[in-house]
Design goal:
By secondary structure, this protein is α/β, with parallel strands linked by helices. It has helices at about 20-25, 50-60, 80-90, 110-140, 155-165, 170-180, 180-190, and strands at about 5-10, 35-40, 65-70, 95, 105. It has a five-stranded mixed β-sheet with strand order 2-1-3-4-5, with helices on both faces. Strand 4 and strand 5 (about 105) form a beta hairpin. The N and C termini lie far apart (about 70 Å).
Amino acid sequence: MGRTFLYARVSTNDQTTANQVLEAKSNGFAIEDHRVFEEHVSGKVAAFDRPVFSKMFDKMEKGDNLVVTKLDRLGRSVIDIVETVKKLGKAGITVKCIQLGGVDLTSPAGKLQMQVLGAVAEFERSLLIERTQAGLERAKAEGKKLGRKASYTPELAAEIKAKYLGGGHSIRQLHKEHGLSVGTIQKLVKG
């Protein structure tokens, strides 16, 4: 029986990992304080690209256990989580998730759960894309203009172009006078 490590992660500095540490210990995991690794980093960052997670992995050995309170502590996407669990499993490290009843995600039952979760996540993503596309098509059919609202009127665009072409105003002057970005002014005078 190997050592047990806890990986606790929150996304922002104003959050705390204290609840994750408490949850792991209250679920019967005996984790020594020096094996608790706490990190403040976005879930968008792949687990092995995170400084604290990488430091923890370097200290782990075959037969060790990694505990997380929830799967999303390992990553934001199911693909990232599955890849992280696979890499840990190949290193001989078991991964236990309290949210899933403490099942070892590297075991056959855990792998099955991961596959089911991955399929559900992929299905949900497909439905979301489908609903988004349907909404965009409906909006177009109703004649709604999509995208960000222009920061200028057609009249203002014509005025800016006339001032520039008349030679009396530079792009910088027009930018300061009208409060539009330099890029927008350039687009208007060249368009």
